[in-house]
Design a protein that fits this description.
The protein is α+β, with helices and mostly antiparallel strands and about 450 residues long. The protein is about 25% helix and about 35% strand. The chain has 10 helices and 20 strands. A hairpin with a 2-residue loop joins β9 and β10. The longest helix has 18 residues. It is globular and about 75 Å long.
Length: about 450
């Protein structure tokens, strides 16, 4: 039984069971990944997964259930399970089954038909090629611990009893490499990842170069004396910080008192140079989509404009509570989950100066290129953070040496207010969170 047939059977059984409104959300994913080690295949995965999530409203309460088995028996199970779940749910937690929007946008760059022509054999050879290139980069590359190439194609369908029927297909290819560099004494690791709808030669070269350079440069790193003042957060480092605190912009968490941005819409919360966008229609974006998991049409929006909070991110439930329209940010992590708030391509708009000019402006200080310990060292509610960091020391506007064994500390809410300049080197991580490099004041660096 295919998904369409299963959905029709499920809807008939839902009607017979007395559900007032109901919805099916399905995903079909065809994935492949290969990892090589010392020229040999270490891991090989090839999988096709199909699943359907169901939610239905009975007697004003919402019940949920899901299955990976598209059989008549599974349809019976889902209806029975959802009905039982609905009976114990709080009526205040009732979900909205959305009738749909008048128009849905076209999003470019979600699906590359040429990617389907890339064979598994070619992906295996690419993984081996990346490993060879890393060893050839420098004799200091002691070991390539893994070289992985993978791909995935996913088709998502949403249909409900109110006539909504949407589908979307996307595919991607990714590659990552991790390695160890050694100078005969110390050892340091390097890692990088690429994801997109096409893996070009320049992408492979950049991937290997970044991972190798990161590890080799770190071999001569040392700590610095503690200080407080201006630092540069490199684009990738600030993307990680932004991702750790992005939930502060979720309306549902603000409504529960878990964000200090509650009731701040229309107020200044950041430096005037800060504009933050959430753009699901970004061509080729990692998190681009024509609609969210509730069937709401996607729309680009400014979350913060020149320091002013213009909007939080809403799903249908939080929007209804606030008496406004959803921003199209109601998503499921998978067909098994319930709807929550998630960002799409969420990023700080780039500035007009180059990264090199930013370094000159800093004059003397520290560049933070990477942060770790975000789960333990960042409090998403208070905004406080203290993160193990690595980077570079800058003297008289020039990078003089790498730095490690330092900690950067501050508060996210205050950090947004103390950003003084932004570079033009916007970069996204694979989750769709992006940032340019920037200078922030009043950051505490702990070192020697």
């Amino acid at each position: 039984m295919n998904i369409t047939e299963f959905k029709e059977l499920l809807f008939k059984k839902a009607e017979d069971a007395g559900f007032e409104a109901f919805e099916a959300y399905s995903e079909k994913t065809d994935s492949f990944s290969i990892t090589v080690y010392k020229g040999e295949i270490e891991k090989y995965k090839k999988n096709i997964a199909v699943g359907v999530g169901f939610r239905g409203i009975a007697d004003g309460k919402t019940g949920y259930a899901y299955t990976e088995d598209l059989s008549p028996e599974a349809a019976d199970f889902i209806i029975k399970e959802a009905k039982a779940n609905a009976e114990i749910m709080n009526p205040e937690e009732t979900a909205e089954i959305f009738e749909g929007c008048e128009k849905y946008p076209e999003v470019l760059g979600l699906y590359n038909p040429e990617l389907t022509l890339v064979t598994d054999k070619e992906k295996i050879e690419t993984a081996k090629e990346l490993e060879r290139a890393a060893y050839a980069y420098s004799p200091k590359i002691e070991q390539v611990t893994s070289s992985t190439v993978g791909s995935a194609e996913t088709e998502t369908l949403i249909a409900n009893s109110k006539g909504l029927s949407l589908s979307q297909r996307r595919n991607s290819i990714f590659a990552n490499i991790s390695l160890i560099a050694s100078d005969g004494g110390s050892k340091k690791t390097g890692w990088d990842i690429f994801a997109g709808t096409e893996l070009k030669d320049k992408d492979k070269e950049s991937l290997v170069k970044k991972a190798c350079h990161e590890a080799i440069t770190a071999l001569t790193a040392a700590s610095v004396k503690g200080c407080s003042g201006k630092v540069i957060f490199k684009n990738e480092a600030f993307s990680d910080i932004l991702q750790a605190f992005v939930q502060n912009f979720f309306a549902e968490l603000a409504q529960k008192g878990f964000s200090l941005l509650k009731d701040k819409e229309g107020e200044r919360i950041a430096s005037e140079c800060i504009t933050i966008a959430d753009e699901p229609l970004l061509e080729g974006g990692f998190a681009s989509t024509a609609f969210d998991s509730e069937g709401v049409a996607s729309q680009n929006k400014l979350v913060v404009e020149k320091g002013v909070l213009k909007t939080l991110l809403y799903n249908l439930k939080s929007a209804k509570k606030a008496g406004r329209a959803s921003t199209g940010n109601g998503f499921k992590a998978s067909f098994k989950g319930s709807v929550q708030t998630f960002p799409t391509n969420f990023y700080i708009k780039k500035g007009e100066v180059s990264y090199e000019e930013l370094v000159k402006t800093l004059d003397n200080g520290v560049i933070i290129t990477s942060v770790s310990g975000l789960h333990a060292g960042a409090n998403p509610i208070s905004g406080d953070f203290s993160l193990l960091s690595e980077g570079f020391l800058v003297e008289k506007g020039k990078i003089v040496r790498p730095v490690d064994q330092i900690t950067c500390a501050g508060n996210f809410y205050e950090l947004l207010k103390n950003i003084t300049q932004i570079a033009d080197d916007l970069k996204f991580d694979i989750s769709g969170i992006g940032s340019p490099s920037l200078i922030a004041d009043k950051i505490t660096i702990s070192g020697e």
